[in-house]
Design a protein that fits this description.
about 30% helix; four-stranded antiparallel sheet; ABC transporter ATP-binding protein; ATP-binding; alpha/beta; Rossmann fold; six-stranded mixed sheet
Length: about 270
């Protein structure tokens, strides 16, 4: 999608149809991925396939390897062993920018928003739109407000472009963070505990945002400790324990009780 102040903003066409995964066997495939930090093995032979428009609930206890896996996918870490593929092509990310160029975005738990700036400015932070006035280029706040409004409308969020982030609810803040991922036409969005420490009403808003991404063909990996949230929106659940995948199955073929047993070790494998 163009993000120049002089360019058009074909939101429905570019953000909808292009993300349906046409011509893509998978959004991302991991095969035998391991990660060592010195003598500590954080991930052991992890294999995972993510399809277009699929929501995967990634669950596990603290220290299970969830964050390490997500950081490898997002380009923050390089795997010690194993292979990553997008479609039929092997990829190797040297940093988050490489992951973003390949359609992978991450929404961190702290959201990385600036409370003193507006929703629109946060959406375009680091990718500000500009326009030419004589020999100068200035930030085009009007264009950013218009395009941010279109993104919020697409996400069916009540977030307003000119509102300061400090005055927003948890659900609205998530909408700002998710809208930011839409600028790069993401095929995969990684979400780290998006429903932690927010109200029941705001949880419903965030889950609806995830469903909106799914409807547009965007794959989502939802890292969460909240069993009801995962079972509400996920197509599959992947459980990590001590760095290994102990379950990867359709949500319809498991239960909260089984997943709890897998997380704690009461059930070895499923």
């Amino acid at each position: 999608m163009p993000i120049d102040g002089t360019a058009g903003f074909g939101l429905t066409t570019e953000l909808g149809a292009n993300n349906r995964g046409v011509g893509w066997m998978s959004v991302l495939r991991l095969t035998g991925v391991s990660k060592n930090f010195g003598a500590i093995q954080a991930l052991k032979n992890v294999s995972l396939t993510i399809e277009p428009g699929q929501v995967i609930g990634l669950m596990g206890d603290n220290g299970a390897g969830k964050s390490t896996l997500v950081k490898i996918i997002a380009g923050n870490f390089r795997p010690s062993h194993g292979q990553m593929q997008i479609g039929d092509h092997e990829v190797s990310f040297h940093g988050p920018l490489d992951a973003r160029k390949n359609g992978i975005e991450i929404v961190y738990q702290d959201l990385a928003l600036c409370d003193n700036l507006t929703a629109a400015v946060n959406v375009f932070l680091g990718r500000e739109l500009t326009r030419q006035i004589g020999p100068l280029r200035i930030v085009d706040y009007a264009a950013m407000n218009r395009q941010a409004a279109a993104l919020f409308k697409e996400l069916k969020s009540e977030t307003r472009p000119r509102d300061l982030v400090r005055s927003m609810s948890g659900g609205q803040r998530q909408a700002v963070a998710i809208a930011r991922t839409r600028l790069s036409n993401a095929r995969l969005v990684l979400m780290d505990e998006p429903t932690a420490a927010i109200s029941v009403r705001q949880v419903a808003e965030v889950l609806n945002l995830i469903r909106m991404l799914q409807d547009q063909g965007v794959a989502v990996v939802l890292i969460s400790h909240r069993m009801p949230d995962v079972f509400s929106v996920a197509d599959r659940v992947v459980v990590l324990r001590r760095g290994s995948v102990v379950a990867d199955k359709p949500i319809s073929q498991t239960s909260p009780e089984e997943v709890t047993g897998l997380i704690t070790g009461a059930i070895e494998h499923a």
